[in-house]
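Backbone shape codes:
===
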Amino acid sequence: MSRTSNRTDGDVIRDFLSVADLLEEPQLAQLYAYLAREEEATVQELMNELDLAQGTAYTYVNRLVDAGVIEATTDEQPRVYVARDINLTVTAADDAREYTITPALIDAIARRTTDDDIDTYIDRHGIAGLATALTYTVDRERGEVTHRLMARDLDISPLAAEIILQALRPVVHEHFDIEEAGASVADIEVVDRDIAGDNA
């Protein structure tokens, strides 16, 4: 569902509306995020993994199929569902910022039901604020920014910045290729053995 500039305005609006429920309803976002992460699942697997009642699971699946963000891969029973890729860029009303709605952002929204820090951040700063925080978290995990820089740029306290950076860290590591920085204990032990061997 990636959108490029050759799409008509009507297509882009339909695409935005198809993901609007994901942005507003964390339970739908959670189901979408699960399918995006696991690649495919039946309704029974969704019920088991997400602790959903049968009626609720079918209602959510049907809503997401109707919205075009998930699809059945077969007509055979039980049907197997997969998430369609979402990559939709939205420009803020003031044209100052663009936000890209991606599976990672939807996953972060889904976690608001189980993570009070994400929930509080969305309540205070909205989905656009969460999208910005997610971008800072990716940069932080790559060693490019600190919580203090984020706090200064966004005019929030360093503590608030650190809290949301920590809350979004699992999302970033699940959706982005982040190389671990620094040496591990095993690396240090190898260096110690090499030094000890050189002294012998």
In short: The first helix runs from residue 9 to 24. Residues 42 and 162 are 37 Å apart (CA to CA).
